[in-house]
Design the sequence.
């Protein structure tokens, strides 16, 4: 296969937006689309390689897998091994346990599934995850396992049928992607973003381009200077449009994913030495950046994550820019490692796989131990509770779930008032604040998941009976970002008002930017600054909800500078995820919050 410098230039255009997106620069707020570009490039290169070898009769699936392993594994294993001591030294137990899970999932090429089944890519805690970005490697590697097998099976039926087969498969995947995206107002949900089934169309588009060029490389239309110039410029325009020229919620985001893929496809198909786009893409430093793009992709996120973990508040743009420079420098050395392991003369297959097996066992063993020990939480008295035997100590999930016994509970006691609590996980937090203090004794509780978060609309019919049967309704949400989510919430309130039903809205809360350093350093008196997003949503609630129906939790627990305590008076951790309460936090904060006149009758 002929080396195409412009493909490395395309890699540079793909990796930089991703790096600056993970750094948090607003200009690159859609930089995650760089991954879409990578997928198309991968599909094109892998298919071109297989087509050439199949046509020559030299294709070997064993050799294919070994080449992929030599390309991907050495730098990936290195970054994971380097991350381990930093994670153990710097991370608090909840984050460390998650890191251990990521080690295992990444090694088993399934970190995309771990993210899908747990917190997801868009969760606020994602910026503290050193291996967050390896989800895309999982997608590619899953494809690499399946694709050569498929090519072997269909090779004899001819390229024309293979072309249309791939076209059909990519169409099905594209429809699946848009169907999932449309469920979130054509934004990206975790399934459409993370899984191979909804990403395959991007890789297959690259494969289709490879087949097209393999079959029609002498085509006059493709080789026309005018055609090449026009379509390659359109391709560059599509990339700029998708990455920079739209704002969140201004259009369907899925459209811009398609634009990024289309732009990449056009450049691959129509690049020629004479075109403007190619002359730019083959510039020395652009190609050089493309050559180290894999190493840069691997190193940038761990560097950003650990910078954030050691910072009490959000790092400045200067520090983040310096981190980008550091990632570039490290990537230059990491690229040399990549080249060394790709060379069979430098390291034999036996030596390569033996060393790989040792590293795999080390990484997986460490990951399993971090998971099994729950991030060494028992070494932190700030999280330990002998009476509860750690049931709520190491993670918020155990305690949040403790409210589940009230989920969908029917009201049956005639001598107690019916208290319906609804919202998201913060509604469970509210129950825990009361239950840990022995409140609600005169009330029968029911928890209903009438959650506006990530829902376009909840019809009144879905909560009609629940609201009608309640004597009082308590609603609590974390953050409702979109206008549709807020509209859903306001419709619930309007319905309650139409019933003349007594209701209370519990304000949101937040525990700062980062909990790792305060816990590790035992900074018991430190107060964390509440995030701007939470302050904005709380201000929205104050301005929207009548005073007689609203409990301003932040106004109760934060000081005049909008800072909150991270430890209770007994030096127990208030939260382990910056949002939900531990048992200790629920008990102590609950005592304060329930002093509000609106809640005194619930005690």
Sequence:
């Amino acid at each position: 296969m002929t080396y195409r410098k412009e493909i490395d230039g395309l890699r540079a255009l793909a990796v930089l937006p991703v790096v600056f997106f993970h750094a948090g620069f607003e200009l690159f707020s859609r930089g995650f689309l760089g991954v879409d570009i990578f997928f198309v490039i991968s599909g094109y290169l892998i298919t071109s390689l297989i087509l050439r070898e199949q046509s020559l009769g030299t294709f070997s699936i064993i050799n294919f897998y070994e080449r992929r392993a030599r390309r991907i594994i050495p730098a990936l294993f290195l970054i994971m091994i380097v991350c381990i001591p930093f994670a153990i030294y710097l991370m608090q137990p909840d984050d460390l346990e998650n890191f251990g899970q990521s080690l295992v999932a990444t090694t088993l090429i399934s970190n995309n599934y771990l993210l899908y089944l747990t917190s997801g890519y868009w969760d606020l805690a994602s910026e503290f995850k050193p291996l967050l970005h390896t989800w895309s490697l999982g997608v590619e590697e899953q494809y690499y396992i399946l694709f050569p097998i498929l090519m072997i099976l269909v090779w004899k039926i001819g390229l024309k049928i293979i072309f249309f087969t791939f076209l059909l498969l990519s169409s099905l995947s594209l429809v699946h992607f848009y169907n999932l995206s449309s469920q979130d107002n054509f934004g990206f949900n975790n399934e459409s973003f993370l899984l191979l089934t909804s990403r395959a169309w991007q890789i297959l588009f690259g494969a289709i381009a490879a087949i097209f060029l393999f079959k029609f490389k002498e085509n006059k239309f493709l080789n026309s200077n005018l055609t090449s110039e026009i379509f390659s410029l359109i391709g560059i325009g599509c990339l700029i449009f998708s990455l920079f020229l739209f704002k969140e919620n201004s259009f369907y985001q899925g459209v811009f994913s398609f634009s990024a893929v289309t732009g990449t496809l056009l450049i691959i198909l129509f690049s020629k030495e004479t075109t403007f786009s190619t002359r730019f893409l083959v510039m020395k430093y652009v190609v050089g950046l493309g050559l180290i793009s894999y190493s840069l992709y691997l190193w940038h996120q761990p560097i950003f994550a650990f910078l954030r973990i050691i910072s009490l508040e959000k790092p400045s743009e200067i520090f983040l820019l310096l981190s980008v420079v550091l990632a570039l420098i490290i990537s230059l050395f990491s690229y040399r490692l990549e080249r060394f392991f790709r060379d069979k003369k430098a390291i034999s297959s036996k030596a390569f796989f033996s060393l790989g097996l040792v590293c795999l066992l080390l990484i997986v063993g460490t990951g399993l131990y971090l998971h099994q020990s729950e991030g060494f939480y028992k070494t932190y008295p700030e999280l330990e509770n002998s009476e509860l035997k750690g049931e709520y100590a190491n993670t918020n999930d155990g305690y949040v779930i403790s409210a589940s016994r009230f989920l969908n509970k029917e009201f049956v006691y005639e001598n107690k008032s019916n208290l319906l609590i609804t919202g998201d996980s913060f509604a469970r937090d509210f129950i825990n604040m009361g239950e840990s203090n022995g409140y609600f004794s005169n009330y029968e509780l029911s928890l209903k998941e009438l959650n506006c978060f990530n829902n376009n609309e909840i019809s009144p019919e879905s909560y009609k009976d629940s609201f009608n049967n309640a004597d009082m309704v308590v609603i609590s949400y974390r953050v409702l970002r979109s206008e549709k989510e807020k509209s859903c919430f306001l419709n619930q309130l309007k319905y309650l008002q139409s019933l003349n039903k007594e209701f209370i809205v519990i304000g949101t809360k937040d525990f700062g930017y980062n909990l790792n350093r305060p816990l590790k350093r035992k900074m018991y008196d430190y107060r964390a600054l509440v995030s701007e997003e939470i302050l904005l949503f709380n201000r929205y609630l104050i301005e929207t909800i009548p005073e007689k129906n609203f409990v301003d939790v932040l106004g109760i627990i934060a000081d005049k500078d909008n800072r909150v305590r991270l430890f209770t008076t007994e030096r127990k951790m208030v939260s382990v995820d910056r949002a939900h309460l531990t048992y200790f936090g629920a008990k102590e904060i609950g005592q304060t919050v329930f002093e509000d006149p609106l809640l005194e009758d619930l005690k």
